[in-house]
Design a protein that fits this description.
Elements (H helix, E strand, L loop, with lengths): L10 H10 L3 H11 L12 E5 L6 H10 L7 E2 L3 H6 L12 E5 L7 H8 L3 E6 L2 E7 L3 E6 L11 H4 L1 E5 L15 H4 L2 H21 L6 H14 L1 H9 L9 H7 L3
Parallel strand pairs: 1-6, 1-7, 2-3, 3-6
Antiparallel strand pairs: 4-5
Length: about 260
């Protein structure tokens, strides 16, 4: 680009985002969180969750954003269930920008796996190679109607959730044909979406941290109630006072 050039835009993508997330502050926050997909060396300590009813463009938007940095080569599709149950599955995350899990069933053990992954490195096991550790470059994106279980005695899993609630029915032009990797790997579409992500990344880097909208906090609390009912109850019913009590202390005294 020269000084007078306008960056390429992907107008169909931006129109789709505006329809799927009509609240401007939620859309801004989503743009900044998703911009973390671009720098592979930056660890995002959490899972990005696109949550809502069928037909709300969750999968299409996730696919478009996942394809933007490097097309099909920079993206993997491995479910939470596969990552937890198969020691070989994590090899598919190696050197990827993003991983998308579409409607993975609720799987026991996911909180422990994602907490380990978001520490910044990943233990790899591959055939004919000694186990080794590699940088956790792939940002974890989940599209779902039903949230994964986030129950965790430390409470850390809730802090690792980046849920975005998609409630608008997006129909018509954004049909099954546009949910594909092939469609969103087209170079001009990718270029426009990368520029959209860069807008968010520049704002985020300039500010130094996320500026979280109040509406997003409310949506996250709704997600917490579904993913970890105990955490929701503790937040609603405990008040801070003198001394301290750990969440684990309470859990250990509760009847089975």
């Amino acid at each position: 680009l020269t000084e007078n050039d306008e960056p390429t835009r992907c107008l169909e993508f931006e129109e789709m985002i505006a329809r799927a997330l009509p609240h401007p502050e939620i859309r801004r926050h989503f743009q900044e969180v998703m911009s973390c997909v671009l720098p592979p060396h930056v660890v995002l300590r959490g899972q990005i969750i696109l949550w809502g009813p069928p037909g709300s463009a969750k999968t299409t938007i996730a696919t478009a954003l996942g394809c933007a940095p490097a097309g099909a080569m920079g993206l993997s599709f491995i479910s939470e269930a596969e990552l937890v149950k198969s020691k070989w599955a994590a090899g598919g995350l190696l050197n990827k920008f993003a991983n998308i899990s579409d409607d993975s069933p609720v799987v026991k053990g996911w909180p422990g796996w994602i907490k380990s992954y978001t520490s910044g490195n990943l233990r790899m096991e591959m055939k004919y190679v000694h186990p080794f550790r590699a940088a956790a470059t792939a940002k974890m994106i989940s599209t779902c109607n039903e949230l994964q279980d986030a129950s965790d005695a430390s409470g850390a899993m809730v802090d690792r959730m980046f849920p975005f609630r998609f409630q608008q029915r997006v129909t018509g032009k954004w049909d099954t044909e546009k949910m594909t990797v092939e469609y969103w790997s087209e170079p001009e579409r990718r270029e426009g979406i990368v520029n959209w992500l860069l807008d968010g990344l520049i704002r985020l880097r300039t500010r130094g941290d996320f500026d979280i909208p109040a509406q997003w906090e409310e949506d996250k609390q709704a997600a917490v109630c579904l993913a970890d009912p105990l955490e929701a109850w503790l937040r609603d019913n405990l008040e801070r006072g003198e001394g301290e009590i750990l969440r684990g202390d309470i859990v250990s005294r509760m009847p089975n």
